Amino acid sequence: MTTARDVMNRGAQTIGAEDTLLDAARHMKNLQIGSLPVRAADGALVGMVTDRDIVIRCVADGADAAATTAGSVSSGGIVTVEADMDIDQVLSLMREHQVKRMPVVDGGELIGMISESDLVAELSSERIAHFASGVYKKD
To answer: InterPro entries of this UniProt entry (predicted)?
Structure first.
């Protein structure tokens, strides 16, 4: 059985909800990633901010990325998967919630992320096609 732990990219980074989008963008640039889970002051994961969120919810509206917080534009509520969850269950959750990136936790602690590129590297083209058809479906 292939698990989330087998597929994930280890060492996921986060951004604080009160950190600015400028901080988030710089962090993404330095890490060469397109999203960051957002943590509340108590350490709980509360959302996800993407490079697209920064552009659409801040820059395009003329807001100041140096004054706008990650928490104010992040997607509310975050879906995570346990590290030992079967990859088919992970794919099902990603399809259900139409997300392209999934934080992986172990005992509530963030230990990795699963992205589309991680899936492509590990799964058959048929499984990828099935995943993509659900994540990219038009409502």
So the answer is: CBS_dom, CBS_dom_sf, Diverse_CBS-Domain
